[in-house]
Amino acid sequence: MSDRLTVGQLYTGPVTPNILHKPRPGEAASVPAKPFAQVLEDNLLKLSNHAAKRLEQRGIELKTEQMKQIGTALDKAAAKGAKESLILMQDMAFIVNVKNRTVVTAMDSESMKDNVFTQIDSAVIIS
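Below the sequence we write its predicted structure tokens.
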């Protein structure tokens, strides 16, 4: 047993898995790492089961840019103390729980006709 085992190291000897490889100074990392806070912030918008079903039923596809716009609208609503907000974007409407950052339901232009929005305390219009 001539291999040296260091405390905190799972593998003996000079061969370690690539995941444990740390780039040396001056060596570029192969994948640019985002700070944890940025990754968390990028993924904070959630869809409730009800909203996911409505999106599917109504044929609404949200692109990454649209999700970011909804996230920005949520930030603005939260800054004003909103709890349940209506977000109007193009020909779509979303009811969101601001505190949980969750889309509760989604509507397309056809579903919005002659509709009354209840149980909201604010509205954000994204142009």
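Helices lie at 36-42, 49-57, 64-79, 109-112.
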